[in-house]
DNA sequence: CATAGTGTTCTATTTGACTATTACACTATA
DNA sequence: TATAGTGTAATAGTCAAATAGAACACTATG
């Protein structure tokens, strides 16, 4: 896995796992790979995995069972909330940033539409 | 100035200065505040300012004159390129992130439009 | 009950970011 | 030419993130 060296790795791991939970790659009740396996997969130290999981356990999206493994919460509602929160967070950020670059609301939408359009043309 | 503790401060300072150059708060040829003044304004150490400016000097957007001060490049073209690059960077990132959250191209545009609409209603 | 597979905890070490402080180099000007 | 205002550089110290490695606690199972 490749990381952005401007953001803590444990933080990026959290986001990665969030994504898997939201896209359904990981479903409620699913068992996560063992921490040592995750560490290997992500070419990262076990402690770093533990740090990411620790926060997610505190947040209630993952439940840990000593000796058994780590499991995605059965609380579907929580996953839904998580997705909404992540989306809003992203939109909020890009809005703030582009607004700071002097783009109006209309400019922002137009530039995104244009970006996606061009992207579509490139990736055919 | 408030910083996001997930990203290096010197990096956020660079972005702040970029923004000022792009919005016209700082124009080509303008003299920047003295490094010690910037340090006070941003409640940050001089070395941290220096680190940010150092990179911007390397990039060619700021020119330093020992004993005189730091100045925004006279190269308008460079500023324009900078703005384009920053916008694309933001769009690229939000697109990747929302795409990873299973949103289609249409979903992404719709959610942004909806976000801006709701925001407009709130901030009246 | 031994063993393998889990999560958990702890200590030690390294690295990058940031701060604090001081000194140095150059420019403008009273 | 002295002084104030600038950028530049160097040293030392603190802190958080990450790594490495070991040990411990619990569960399942042959």
List the helices and strands and how they pair.
The structure is a homodimer of 124-residue chains.
Chain A: H1 9-23, H2 35-41, H3 46-59, E1 62-65, E2 69-72, H4 76-100, H5 105-122
Helix pairs in contact in A: 1-3, 1-4, 2-3
Chain A binds a DNA duplex (30 and 30 nucleotides) through residues 5, 8-10, 34-36, 44-48, 50-51, 53, 64-70.
Which terms summarize this structure?
DNA-binding; 5 helices; mainly alpha; 64% helix; elongated; 124 residues; 2 domains; Arc Repressor Mutant, subunit A; homodimer
Could you describe the 3D structure shown?
- The structure is a homodimer of 124-residue chains.
- Chain A starts with 8 loop residues before the first helix and ends with a helix.
- In chain A, strands 1-2 form a two-stranded antiparallel sheet.
- Chain A has two domains: 9-74, Orthogonal Bundle (Arc Repressor Mutant, subunit A); 77-122, no CATH class.
- The first copy, chain A, is elongated and about 55 Å long.
- In chain A, a hairpin with a 3-residue loop joins strand 1 and strand 2 (69-72).
- The model of chain A has no long low-confidence stretch (mean pLDDT 94).
- Chain A has helices spanning 9-23, 35-41, 46-59, 76-100, 105-122; strands at residues 62-65, 69-72.
- By secondary structure, chain A is mainly alpha-helical.
- Helices cover 64% and strands 6% of the residues of chain A.
- Chain A binds a DNA duplex (30 and 30 nucleotides) through helix 3.
């Amino acid at each position: 896995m490749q990381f952005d060296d401007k953001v803590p790795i444990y933080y990026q791991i959290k986001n990665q796992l969030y994504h898997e939970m939201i896209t359904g790659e990981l479903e409620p009740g699913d068992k996560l790979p063992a921490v040592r396996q995750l560490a290997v997969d992500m070419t990262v130290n076990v402690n770093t995995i533990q740090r990411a999981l620790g926060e997610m356990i505190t947040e209630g999206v993952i439940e840990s069972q000593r000796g058994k493994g780590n499991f995605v919460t059965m609380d579907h509602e929580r996953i839904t909330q998580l997705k909404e929160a992540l989306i809003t967070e992203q939109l909020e950020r890009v809005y703030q940033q582009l607004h700071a670059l002097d783009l109006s609301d209309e400019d922002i939408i137009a530039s995104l539409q244009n970006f996606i359009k061009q992207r579509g043309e490139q990736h055919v």
